[in-house]
Amino acid sequence: MTEQQLPVWADPSVSPAALDPQGVSRRQLLRRAGLFGAAFTLGGAATPALAGPAAAGERGCGGEDPRLAYLVGDHHVHSVYSHDAKYTFSQQARAAARYGLDWMVFNEHSNFGHASHGAALEHKEILKARAANPRQLIFQGLEWYIPAAEHCTVFAAPGPHEVDLLTRFELAYDGKLLGYTEGSPGAADTARNEAHAVKAIKWLAEQRRTGYVDDVLVLANHPLRLGIDSPHEMRGWRDAAPEIVIGMEGAPGAQGAAIPGWRGATSIRGEYENKPSAQSWAGYPADAYLTYGGFDWATATVGGLWDSMLAEGRLFTITTNSDNHRTVFDTWKNGDWPAGQTFDDTGRLPDPVNTDTPQPGSDFWPGQFSRTHVGVTRYGYRAVMTGLREGRVWLDHGHLLDGLEVRLRRGHDGGRGVTLGGRLRVRRGEKLTLDITVTTASRPNPQGILPELAHVDVIRGAVRGPVSDRDSWRAPDTRVVRSTDVSGRKGTYTLRVPLLVGDESFYVRLRGSDGNRGGTGYLGASVDPRGPIPHQPGNGDPWADTWFYSNPIFVDVVS
Predict the structure, then answer these.
(1) If we measure between CA atoms, which residue out of 506, 399, 496, 411 comes closest to residue 449?
(2) Rg (CA), the chain
(3) Cα 271 to Cα 275: distance, rounded to the nearest angstrom
(4) Cβ(329)–Cβ(405) under 8 Å?
(5) What is the reported pTM?
(6) In this structure, are strands 492-500 and 431-440 parallel, antiparallel, or unpaired?
(7) Model confidence pLDDT, tens digit, residues 430-471
(8) How far apart are CA 253 and CA 550, in angstroms?
(9) Confidence band, pLDDT 50/70/90 cuts, at residue 2
């Protein structure tokens, strides 16, 4: 593999004059973290200073988390190696670079053509793409059809076995290839299929444990689009290997699906245009099949499914991405097949052809609208995977923010404290301070709008431990505890939020928006007085309703 170069904004050999305003802003954030230049390559200034239990592997418990730089990425991008997509690797990589992505995962759909031909051909192009784009981290992945459920991103660290791992996994465990799609309650094959999904995850964990691959991660994609990812299945995947199944898409791709006048009067952001089916889990309400401010109901509902998993005291990371197949207003169409060829025979679509006429599509280019920010202590593939696994993640739509830094500290402690995904061990009655440092958008986004953050919400939930009902989707003690109006504030500023420790362990997470669209949250005003709401069908301009979300920080109360 070619030697990896730093992104231009992190490379001291690149003059600040050569950077756009956002690049300058990111460089300033990097310098503030003490990770500029060689320090970012080697991770020197970012070595954690942990004490007590944290030194034994409990990150953040009783110690301090490292200073972080945030890399922007997308784990769900398709190319000509997916049967329903359109673009070449080079088209996607160029677009990702144009919109500021540092890392991306080519996440091709599984099927027989891909397993038999496409995966190996794709890997050759991955190697070429890495060589041609040395300032990007480009992963090879697979969109796994989970037996009895929806889709997942599966991706491995670069290495000699990355394509072999994905191909073996696809052939042995893919629900579509095996015909293990049945997941309806009471059906004869459902229990077998759900068990096969768990077996698949344990197999991946074993490949990592034995060193066959350096690392591998799984993230559930568009979990409530069809309502077929039941709460007990999601908990089962997580529990089978929590170091592998680390989370889910908090917001799906296809965010351009409901641009007014584009796809039709019934279109919804994310293409969440489905109704419950026989395969759906019956416990989800009909409203669960919609997006709220572009986010999946499981994430957007304060006190809902995501919170019910966090309330068990276990991290479950959220992400957002493009799921790019066909970009809105793009003028390219699929090329024509040579006589006698099909995807099953070749594993690859013909190269697209430019028509100069807008073509159907719901997606944005990687990084154009949806961005996942991952906190790292150095630059590289495994650093991104470590940041994702440890939950150092926040997301935004529409380039709403340039930067977000979150630290939870003891009231008397002047140290760095713990950050997103971390844990702080405290005693009852202690006073804590949540520092939220926001760097506002420094330039117009790709739509030409200079985003403005209107409010920042702090969400707090009690941690009660594992649930007795594995299909529970409620966290009744989670609610918005503080909402701060930040309209008109510019540059970098810090909100300091006091938190008092009671008898119970708890977690806090953040959310905020441009304030353009909101209302009473799904579970009522006492839980969420100012949350995201669904848009009218066919009238969901994504640029006019943008949000950011963060992962949680956990607080463990000890006697």
Answers:
(1) 399
(2) 22
(3) 12
(4) no
(5) 0.96
(6) antiparallel
(7) 999 999 999 999 999 999 999 999 999 999 999 999 999 999
(8) 18
(9) low
